[in-house]
Amino acid sequence: MDESDIINHFDLQKHPEGGYYKEVYRSKGEILSEHLSDEFVGNRNYCTSIYFLLTSDTFSAFHKINQDEIWHFYKGTSLKLHLISPEGKYSLVTIGDDFKNGDLFQFTVLAQYYFAAEVIKKNSFSFVGCTVSPGFDFRDFDLPSCETLTLKFPIHKVIIKKMTHH
After folding, report:
1. Mapping DSSP to helix (H, G, I), strand (E, B) and coil, where does residue 39 land?
2. The domain 3-28+43-162 belongs to what CATH superfamily?
3. How many angstroms separate the CA atoms of 9 and 162, rounded?
4. 56 near 122, Cβ under 8 Å?
5. From CA 22, how far away is CA 73, in angstroms rounded?
6. b vs e for 118-127, b when ≥16 Cβ sit within 10 Å of the residue's Cβ?
């Protein structure tokens, strides 16, 4: 099985941040906007989840959302998840199945963190799931330019340049 088998089988589409995705769950229940923080405009489903696939030829560019996002490793090789906190602290987490060397099967990116991901091994892929609560809505999605993010966090300009599309 290779990445094209997974892309075709699950009918994954290109994601604006990079890679491929398909929403696989959106709860029927909603949280009314008056019960959400000011970052949210409108109601949100309780929870959503997607399949997400990155190849070594693609990467997920730095972006942020208003919700916590839980990453779950399924198949392929490990990936690096780059994080920049709202205060500007950089950290790195490896998601995969090599737990003896520090990989995590599951990791939660906190709301308002900028994050980006890349596959570690050349000529490979990483197939993961991402669960978001309150449910994801593209109104919560911020995909900044390299220039915008570098102005905000100039100390991290090298990794920002590497992990943004523009």
Report:
1. coil
2. Jelly Rolls (2.60.120.10)
3. 31
4. yes
5. 15
6. bbbeeebbbb
Put simply, whether the predicted model's pTM sits higher than 0.85 gets the answer yes
Helix (H, G, I), strand (E, B) or coil at 5: helix
- 14-62 per-position pLDDT tens digit: 999 999 999 999 999 999 999 999 999 999 999 999 999 999 999 999 9
| 110 and 30 Cβ atoms separated by less than 8 Å | no
CB-based contact 33:41 (threshold 8 Å): yes
State both tokens at 146: 């390299």
Within 26-106, where are the H helices?
A: none
Structure-block tokens of residue 131: 């669960």
- HSE value, Cβ hemisphere, 13 Å, CA-based, for 50: 21
